[in-house]
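A.,

Following up on our hallway conversation. Structure tokens first:
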């Protein structure tokens, strides 16, 4: 079965990957542009105060000081992040605007929507990866399973047991569930909700037995309190935040899928500005306040060069095409 994203590099000191000539250009460019760009605006395509917003604000705040005198975050929620991408596409390529967005906007969406208002590889310039959320299977109070294998056995007994919640059709968790079902040969049914909040209500209330979800702070906190159980994660190795939880892979289920977030610049942004922004991002991710925030919120920081991120998008776009086609999912308008 497909093992997805398991071979991707995880690098933090990405300056060693930038050619010496590009680095020589980027540093004076940062010093020169610093006086020309008083404010960095970071676009986030999700509501403020929850989800990716707090970590995005923390990183943006620590990116100021070299290339930008100040930094602000502008939330543009809607259409799964596509509205924020459209805003970035229209922004001037002068280093004043960046976008923080998930991989699925660029690698998965071309396969689940018939038409996008942006070209995922043509209309944005990769700056660098920032962090990753891992995916997993969560059992609610009505689900007695404690391991992925126990869940498979339980789901095979009754079709009602094989229902699983997802935050939206065509989302990353949706296809994690579909891949899990294919790998285990269990006839499972996805139940789509409008976001994660109603999923948690029904999961904790026993209306839905299972949930394929990003394993973020809310899931880990509920797992540790005993409200729910994270049965397994779709990662190559166990999470440092959940050492007691097995991977699907070690459980004999070859499903490895994650969702990373990265920073992007408008089209036609000069390479020296991109390199300088990448350096600011690298420093921000290494700042003690950022590393501490990520540790407390169970987020894995993962930095990359623009070149590595661009290649990652190309590779994962092909992989997602295979996964979506195999699932039988039909693209939406």
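Then the amino acids I'd put at each of the 333 positions:
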């Amino acid at each position: 079965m497909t093992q997805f994203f398991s071979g991707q590099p995880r690098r933090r000191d990405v300056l060693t990957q930038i050619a010496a000539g590009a680095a020589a250009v980027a540093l004076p460019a940062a010093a020169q542009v610093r006086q020309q760009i008083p404010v960095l605006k970071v676009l986030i395509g999700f509501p403020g105060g929850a989800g990716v917003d707090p970590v995005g604000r923390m990183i943006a705040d620590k990116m100021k000081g070299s290339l930008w005198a100040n930094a602000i975050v502008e939330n543009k929620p809607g259409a799964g992040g596509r509205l924020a991408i459209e805003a970035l596409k229209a922004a001037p390529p002068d280093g004043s605007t960046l976008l923080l967005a998930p991989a699925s906007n660029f690698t998965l969406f071309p396969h689940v929507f018939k038409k996008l208002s942006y070209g995922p590889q043509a209309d944005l310039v990769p700056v660098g990866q920032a962090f990753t959320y891992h995916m997993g299977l969560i059992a609610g109070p009505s689900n007695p399973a404690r391991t992925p294998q126990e869940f498979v056995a339980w789901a095979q007994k009754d079709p009602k047991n094989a229902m699983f919640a997802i935050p939206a059709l065509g989302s990353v968790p949706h296809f994690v569930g579909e891949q899990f079902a294919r790998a285990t040969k269990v006839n499972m049914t996805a139940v789509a909700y409008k976001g994660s909040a109603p999923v948690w209500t029904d999961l904790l209330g026993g209306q839905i037995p299972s949930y394929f979800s990003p394993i973020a702070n809310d899931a880990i906190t509920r797992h540790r309190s005993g409200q729910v159980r994270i049965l397994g994660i779709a990662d190559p190795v166990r999470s440092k935040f959940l050492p007691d939880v097995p991977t699907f892979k070690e459980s004999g289920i070859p499903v490895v899928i994650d969702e990373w977030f990265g920073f992007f610049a408008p089209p036609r942004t000069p390479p020296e500005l991109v390199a300088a922004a990448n350096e600011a991002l690298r420093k921000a991710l290494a700042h003690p306040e950022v590393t501490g925030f990520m540790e407390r919120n169970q987020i894995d920081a993962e930095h990359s060069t623009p070149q590595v991120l661009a290649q990652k998008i190309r590779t994962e776009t092909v992989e997602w095409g295979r996964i979506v086609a195999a699932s039988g999912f039909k693209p939406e308008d």
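Residues 134-251 form a domain with the D-Maltodextrin-Binding Protein; domain 2 fold (CATH 3.40.190.10). Curious whether your intuition agrees with the design.

B.
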